[in-house]
Amino acid sequence: MTSIVDIPIPVMLEQVVYPDRQKMIGERFKIVHLESEKGKGLNGRYCTVVGFDRDKIARLHCRIEGDNEEAVKLKNRNLVAEETNAALENFMENSAPMPDNKIAACLELALEKHSGPMDRADLIHRVGLYRDLLQKLQSSESSLTDEDYCFPCADGLELLNEGGDNTFGVLMNAMIVGCCGNGTMDMRYVDRGLKGDNHTECSVCHEVLAADSDGSLDQVLVTLPCLHVFHEKCIVDWLDSDVGRRNWNCPTCRQVVPDDMSTYRVHYDEQVQRRVDEYPLSGYCTKCMMWLMERIRNEELPITFE
Predict the structure, then answer these.
(1) Fold of domain 4-88
(2) What local confidence, expressed as pLDDT, does residue 244 receive?
């Protein structure tokens, strides 16, 4: 398998970045995370993508709703798709926090996996955040605050050279999108959506999805790409019914269900650890992981070159 760092930048731009930008033309987005004085006035407003630059940064040309001025150029990370807001709003917001001993155990395993040589400044930075939190969790003298558990989504991205000759840096800076959550990776809620919250209902049996404090569920939950959650038995029985076999879709929103359902039935401990392992690599917070990665678990970069 070809490593991302071995792919020539022009190939990556033509086969990954530019096709993704082309799909965005005509779509509506919410503007987020602009920090300049002028940009702050655009945060929260909506725009439509009308084009993009064909260069390493590939800024998007966005026409602001209600303005007659020329389109402004924004980075991908300053846009959030309209459907993202609707799908993730209040998703499992009543989840109980993970206990400190569970967080510490996950951090220890993640640090073991990321213990080898690292040549990415952003990865080194986020691994350092994990070490600091683990040290605080293991110290009997530490009294942790809310901020201690929280890291910024995409923290360390600024350490990558977006305009240089590093393929990975160019790809990350071009493809990372605006945060789907509140801009924060909260380690206490990294298991959001993997266990019940004593609030959300399974829309097949209409029972509230019960939460066990330690995450050891009697019934496995399945979160479909549309982010509707069910008891495993309920969704399997639905898909095995006459209606389910004819339509093969989510019983809540009718979105088509992937053929390979096995990737959406993941053991609680395994998926929690995957998320903890992932943050140092991509910088995505839990909601970004759910929206950008877990919805399409088997997708690979569509790159071909000789």
Answers:
(1) SH3 type barrels. (2.30.30)
(2) 67
